Amino acid sequence: MAEARTASASDQRLLEIAGEMGITTVFDRAASMKECPIGSGASGVCCKMCAMGPCRLVTRRGQKVVGVCGASVETIAARNFARMVAGGTAAHSDHGREVSNVFLAAAKGEIAGYEIRDEAKLRMVAGVLGVPTDGRSTRDIAIAVGEMAVGEYGKQAGELLFIRRAPQRRQEIWRRLGVVPRGIDREVVETMHRTTMGVDQDYENITFQATRTALADGWGGSMLATELQDILFRTPVPVRGQVNLGVLEEKQVNIVIHGHEPLLSEMIVRAAREPEMVALAKSLGAEGINISGICCTANEVLVRHGVPVAGNFLQQELAITTGAVEAMVVDVQCVMQGLADVAQCFHTDLITTSPRAKIAGATHIQFNEHDAISTAREIVKRAVGNFPKRKGNVQIPKEKYDLVAGFSHETINYMLGGSFRASYTPLNDNIINGRIRGIAGVVGCNNPRVPHDVVHNELVKELIANNVLVVQTGCAAIACAKSGFTVPEAARKYAGAGLAEVCEAVGIPPVLHSGACVDNSRILIACTEMVKTGGLGNDISDLPVAGAAPEWMSEKAIAIGQYFVASGVFTVFGVHWPTAASQEYTDYLFKGHEGLYGGKWACEPDPAKMAAAIIDHIDGKRTALGINVKKERKLFDMADRRELATG
Ligand code: BF8
Questions:
Q1: Which of 251, 38, 226, 213 is nearest to 124 (CA)?
Q2: Is 641 part of a structural domain of the chain?
Q3: In the beta sheet, which residues pair with residue 257?
Q4: Ligand 1 proximal residues by C-beta, below 6 Å
Q5: Which of 104, 387, 464, 618 could pair covalently with 146 via S-S, beta carbons 3.0-4.6 A apart?
Q6: How far is the CA of 294 from the centre of ligand 1 (A)?
Q7: pLDDT in tens, 355-413
Q8: 557/431 same-domain check
Q9: Which residue minimizes the CA distance to atom 9 of ligand 1?
Q10: What is the domain count for the chain?
Q11: 441 and 314 belong to one structural domain
Q12: Which atom of ligand 1 is nearest to the CA of 474?
């Protein structure tokens, strides 16, 4: 059942063990449940917005097919697409809201355990938000920032404040098209309204609102999550760590933290290091307490603490199958219900912690942010108490790999520019002189419809061999870390000569792990810094950059893709394309968007072809910039610099 479903031999062995134990995993379910060709867009679209349907619109050559209400294939494809954007935006932004609320409460001194750890970043964010800082205490600035952040969710009019971080020309495009988000919640609600039965039935108009919603994610909810987490928990700097299920420790209590919001997981990491907890573990026969992560929670605690990563999305059930996990602690997003059934076959406690995300059969210990460390201690104690209940069938893979993570845009600035002249100038110079051909953000999920991690790895290998610097987040970053691409030594081994030369000079890997999926907002800021630094055009759409989500599965990926496209980035997805049943609507996203935003979508499941499309796009941008000849440089004149400085 599981043959060739994963790049990893150790995962393959665990799948076989699961099979022998009668445990069903996501790989088995994907094999037994065929994709619905209507739902996947492969041969039609489905509308279930009302009880006159569901209407399955299977396009027949020469025959106009419409729903019972008369809705066209294009309208239905656009509605479904917009609702995916709304779902993804809601997820990232509800995460950002939780962080904003805790941030404000911490700033006011209303909750213990959280404090302002990165004052420089606080002042930078205050500057962007227009919060005065001169002569004010850290507390006052933090309260003002927190209030403005919380206000961004319920704002009814005006513009989201982080929009002003984008290049001036990008802001002008958004204003001209009427897609500047007003308030984060408002855009999600309006998209849900406009896509319900009998409202917006013009696919272009629906998609403008989808774009406004997506921008409310990338330049709103996700960006707020990233920036406020950095202030509370520290802006990441490069940190060494390890990845794969081999990070589980046979002789220690293993607590796997999984989900997305770092508010509780930060506290669990802290609680597990307390001497009383370690002593408790030792009193029960364990050598200590080992915390590791799955999915984006893993990335959050990796980039700030070097906490090992057990695995990415498709490894969550396999982690429990090792028999070595005392507790898997989950919060929100990308947590499979199937975990509950797998946990029942072992001594593992599956612990849900968010009132927004309970699972039948799991233990619920509600996270109380007003006494977060107590919640964390209760969870750690429970896990420790589970250690003696192990059933003796522990099968931890030996394989684990070194990685370096924590490449925030501030770090890239510092590492490439140096402490005395931190800037993006050296990066831009190396792109202009051709050592670095361009930059690709390779992000997103795993999907059992394609071999686990294989598409990520083949795409990234091809890109770095062709001197494309790769920046990663989410499960994509974990996939490539397992392949050894995220250590500095990978430059010599895998990168083309120009990219390797730059990486070795600076001491960075050719693939930069930048964090969790909300941290795609770091990539937006890095692109903006490249524009503002000069020499590579006047807008993000001029840059030789591209984005990809080769194994996407989540609505969140569609929201991310749409905000990258609307920010001017060519973005390629793998697996399959959800609007494929409507050629006209798909053309609008794949071609029509370029005329609107300078960015566009594409879908290409084959990693070699995906790499070729990205490299072609990058070369096209280099030609347009006049830098597609090694060493030839289009100088950025003072008039251009002055114009950008006003941006
Ligand atoms: O937000 S990459 S599978 S874990 S959705 Fe989920 Fe996809 Fe992983 Fe993080 Ni992002």
A1: 226
A2: no
A3: 293, 329
A4: 260, 295-296, 313, 334, 444-445, 474-475, 516-517, 554, 556
A5: 104
A6: 10
A7: 999 999 999 999 999 999 999 999 999 999 999 999 778 999 999 999 999 999 888 88
A8: yes
A9: 296
A10: 4
A11: no
A12: 2
